[in-house]
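Technical note accompanying the year-one report. For the benefit of new consortium partners, we illustrate the data format agreed upon in the data management plan: each record pairs a sequence with a structure-token string. No post-processing was applied to the example shown here.
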Amino acid sequence: MASPALSRALAEAIWHAGVQAVRPQYCLPQFLLQRYQEGDPRFDFQQYSRILVVGGGKAGAAMAGALEEALASAGVDLSRVEGWVNVPSETVRPLKRIRLHPARPMGVNEPTPEAAYGAEQILQLARSAGPDDLLICLISGGGSALLPLPAEGISLAEKQQVVRALLRCGATIAEMNAVRKHISRIKGGRLAQEFTGRVCLTLIISDVIGDPLDVIASGPTAPDPTTYSDAWSVLEKYGLLDEIPTGVREHLQRGVRGEIPETPKDLPLGPDGRPRVAHFILASNRHALEAAARFARQSGLEVVQLGPYLEGETRPVAETLACLARFWREEIRWPTAVLSGGETTVSLPKQHGKGGRNQEFALAFLHKLSQSDPNGVILLAGGTDGEDGPTDAAGAFADAEVLRQAQRRGLNLADFLTRHDAYTFFDAVAALFRPGLTETNVMDLRVLLIEPAAGASAADAPTKRPGGAG
């Protein structure tokens, strides 16, 4: 068997195979069919007076469209369906019964007045539910920014200031959401708290490591284990207590003193004593990795899976992967794809360049790789949503050709890395990855292709090539 030729095109094809498996058009109908075949009574849609659909996230438009089609295919009279979902403006399109509300433009992953208006409409729709109504909540990555509804006494501008400060400090998604939930009227289970209908089914495409229900989109229908004290501690940890607006600080202090209600810690119960809210993970980073691995094997590659749990500061994680790539190249005897997921963070100074965590990952990887023989290695680091930071790229490629182009143009990798200006660097060497919006979001997917070092050939490989079970 001839070994496959490694190329950027192959890395991109593997990446797209992973993303395709977690797109709502594929995973949502599959999930509903499975629940129907299992006879789950909650998914007997004919029993409800009305079906209310709400939600927010980067996958919201595709989820809403797929849901409408699935309900129609199941014989549901769509006149009983009413919905409102906050989505990025580029994904808005007309649906039969669910309104897709343009809550923010591309590249602006923070709360906007349009998103706050939409979140208010969602809360009102949930409150309108009658005793025999079903609420379907569609949640996906980006939902925290797309569902902003500040607590009383806090303005949207003040909330934006807090989120920007946490992003700049490199706070984790769990830390950020602990704060967001405690300055919101809809997050941290408060949406479910306002629902008075029969059943709430929350369908989720997860963009958080480990798929914690209370963290994804700040858990609008999930019980919240964090407290006002936890939120205060996050701001204290990053030295932000003197930087945040007075209204936010006073609100959190009141919460710490017990003067205002905590976020709900238990799911609301129905008349039968059972929880009225159920959560289901439709797709996650793990599903994308599994699909990417299948495609890579079908393409003749060995596969090493590093899993969906990579996190931490971007640069050291990327440098570690570059060191491993050098080691693997010396050890393998067959072209190999090393797949990894998860989501790293970048701590930014107040003055910085342009890019996102995947572009920074590729640049840090390339900088480390340049200290040895860079040939035979190709990395594609990309956000599965098609966005990476406030840019039009999802990520970037890193390989020997990028280094050659950089040398021809006199570009110093270390300087760009120090300035956190990866976008400018990769744009100059034509190595940005621009797939466009994917209408899904399961964190990041990195495809690392490695060919054996010179002198190692397929003839040296054992009968069963290593890594295939990864």
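Partners are asked to follow this layout when depositing records. The longest strand covers residues 81-88.
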